Amino acid sequence: MNRHRLCLAGAACCFAAMGITVKTALAVGHDGVFLLGLIRFLAAFLFVSGGAAAGFWRLRVHNRKAFWLRGFFGAGGNFLLFVSIALVGLGRGSVLSQLMVVFAALFGHWLLGERLNRRLGVSVGLTASGVLMLAGFRSPGTGELLAVSGALCSGLALVFIRKLKETDSLHVIFFSQSLCGVLLLLPAALLAPLPTAVAAIVQGGLLAAFFDTCGQYLMTRGMRTASAAEAGVLLVLTPVISMAAGLILFHEKTDMLTLLGCSLILLGSLSVALNSLRPSAQC
Predict the structure, then answer these.
(1) What is the overall mean pLDDT for the chain?
(2) Are 113 and 105 in contact (CB under 8 A)?
């Protein structure tokens, strides 16, 4: 396997490890999702701003509108992933978050004028069917709706990342999410009651920030030479690993309908990724 593919596979493992960390911390701490999210964003904020203060990189923002839009939608999507993991489980929450690939393609067409074709329509149908199956062919519950909302936010964030890459550095792009995450969650974390195990929540937040930062770095390295299709295919490893971890580590219940729904969502995400298939610069 080439180096860029190893980086992308490593990023998928890091993102899955972040989900496992969140699930474990919330199970031990008995709630505390607002504090967990705040610690996660605050740690990343201090890391990026500290590196800038030490002179390792600069945080000069050129496209301020895209900076704030990417930041708030990215932070919202990331935090709603934490909430959905707590409400619907690690496996189902992680799989539902893959809807961001489909939303990113749709918003890319509407906001950036990117090409829309029949394959994307098929992908939307597959993923919509998968969500209905995960909900048991009933109206999606609060957990499912929050997971889909988080995926929608993440899809919009991906669109604004594409805009920011034209003018701003990768450090600025990552900093926008960290800053907006702190601004969003600080009031809620101060008003919410403290969890029963504060230390577990703090440790979970720090570990989540570590895994997410490593995942972002590896993904960025891998996407320098990998095609968008390769990145999409390899990053689908994240919900697959999370689904297995939910079954093995947390004994999350599943059935054939749930597995089929997850499969349809993953197939829809893969279809969107393969839609952008181009010959790679390197093989």
Answers:
(1) 85
(2) no
Give yes or no for a contact between 164 and 66, defined as CB atoms under 8 angstroms apart.
Answer: yes
Tens-place pLDDT, residues 90-111: 988 888 888 887 788 788 878 8
- Residue 4 burial by Cβ neighbours in a 10 Å radius (0-12, 13-18, 19+): buried
Neighbours of 252 (CB within 10 A): 18
Q: Is 197 helix (H, G, I), strand (E, B) or coil?
A: coil
pLDDT for 231:
62
Indicate if the alpha-carbon torsion angle 31, 35, 41, 47 is positive or negative.
negative
Residue type, 57: W
pTM of the prediction? 0.84
Grade residue 281 by pLDDT with cuts at 50, 70 and 90: very low
40/38 Cα distance (integer angstroms): 5
CA 241 vs CA 17, 92, 101: distances in Å:
9, 11, 18
The per-residue pLDDT for range 150-182, each reduced to its tens digit, is 999 988 998 888 788 889 888 898 899 999 999
Residue range 32-67, pLDDT digits in tens = 999 999 999 999 999 999 999 999 999 999 999 999
* Nearest one of 213, 177, 192 to 77, comparing CA atoms: 177
Q: End-to-end CA distance of the chain, in Å?
A: 9
Tokens matching residue 265: 């969502």
- 117-134 burial, b if ≥16 CB within 10 A, otherwise e? eeebeebbebbbbbbbbb
Nearest to 157 by CA among 173, 140, 135, 141: 173
Angle at 15 between CA 213 and CA 173, to 5 degrees: 40
Distance CA 185, CA 79 (A): 9
